[in-house]
Amino acid sequence: SPRLQESRDLILQLAKHFPVVIIVIDALDECNPATRRQFLHAMESILRACSSFVKIFISSRNDQDIVYKLQDYPNLELSSDRNRGDFAKFVKSETSSIFNSGAMLQYSTSKEELRQRIIRGYGTEQRRGRFRWATLQLQAVGTKPP
Known about the structure:
mainly alpha; two-stranded parallel sheet; elongated; NPHP3-like_N; 2 domains; 2 strands
């Protein structure tokens, strides 16, 4: 596409001024499959054409076309299983903080029961890979109304 070509050319022009270029692409899997095929081709052409040292970091779910296209490049796979402990600690800490601050159920006698239910519920979201969603929800719950 013309815009993709323009972007590629701009990156190549900018790269002439830097010895190292790092390009970060987040959530490539959310891009239209036809567009991402063109995009990955453009990234490969940058790697071939650029005189600078280029690193491209792409985060994505393991969609088959992406995995296939990137199989010849160094890959680091991150799994939600690896951060399960961190996620659980975060949810427990945030939930305790919300309840202790009085932002939620200040005078309730069922705080602990509800806190445990929230922690279990967010554990389900973590298994689905929704750490950011859970974080935003906890922040919203912890915000006191004006």
